[in-house]
Amino acid sequence: MRIAFLYIAEAYQCYHGAAIAIELARVPGVSVTSYFNDPETPHHLERVRAAYDAPPADYRRLHRSLPTRALQQLRMLGMFKDLVMRDNVAELDGYDAVFAVENTVAALRRLGARHPRLIYSPHGFGDRARGYIPRIATFDFVLLAGRKTARRMLEQGLVREGDHALTGSVKLDTASRIAETAPVAFAENRPIALYNAHKEPRLTSWQRFIEPMLAGFAKDERMNLIVAPHVKLFRRRSEAVRGRWRARSTGNVLVDPGSDRSVDMSYAAAADIYVGDVSSQVYEFLAVPRPCVFLNAHGIDWRDDPSFAHWHLGDVVDDPADLMAAIHAAPARHALYRDRQAAMAAESLGDTSPGAARRAAEAIVAFLAR
Questions:
Q1: How far apart are CA 71 and CA 53, in angstroms?
Q2: Could you give the CA distance from residue 36 to residue 290 in angstroms, rounded to a whole number?
Q3: Which of 164, 233, 305, 307 is the most exposed place for a label (fewest CB within 10 A)?
Q4: Region label for 266, one of left (φ > 0), alpha (ψ between -120 and 50) or beta (otherwise)
Q5: Can you list the domains of the chain with their CATH numbers?
Q6: pLDDT tens, 33-46?
């Protein structure tokens, strides 16, 4: 049984799937090859491999034609995922299965891959509608963390009974093993707020809230702040730009525009309060219910919109002038949200006991043996 793990997008997605490859490679008669597009991917695959004490694995850079390479040099324009898949479809068509944590891999069918069964595991468990799009129905088998996602996908015809499995969150499983040996350190041991802004231009709180937030924590040092936006917010920015943001760190503020810790849940584990907008990472934080504050930077009418269900798990701030007061009030107000947080986290994350990657591997082997 030959299985290709296809990392067609940015390397941060490794934490959602690499552990499954490791568990599959331990099954007799199964061989696994990991293909990658982002050159930073092997570093992160190796971090996961070391955490699982696994033997060396087979990593291969995806072939890129000369036109694809030329376009990828234009960093601002993205990964050119469709072109890269087109360049590799003949090789991938030789596998029994192709596994991905990126739903764009459904394009392999359109591009001509007929032999492998396509297996998908979403790299998040959020509420936004973009996580429930028609192309998911292209996949032959889907691994999901919790009942919330399964229910919505079944209702929309994106998965079928018998062709999906609930396994729990592989990223939580992986993060618990990777946990940094050195804790997140500040000059003073104070409560920590984590600001996790999303990248989506029409939804992100970054442009409207980051400066008031930095100013607020500069004036009020009763708390520490970690600024760790979605890594794609700075992915296509120059190192000089990222360096300027890192340089804005102070004794009680850590600004991280993209590091290993910004993708492996180190900050979520260290923080006492979550401040964010629409990232599904809020559910990773709520594996242990804690205070949350949500930022509505675009005047969204969110209360009855299922894409913003997580905004019912903490106070919502519309005006940056109210930000610091809301953050300081969050611990005292947490009792209003704790039970709902626990219920929604359970629905989103599913089984949080150790072994999610093993459960996923077992489900894949059973499906392919049918």
A1: 37
A2: 36
A3: 305
A4: alpha
A5: 2-169+351-368 (3.40.50.2000), 192-349 (3.40.50.2000)
A6: 999 999 999 999 99
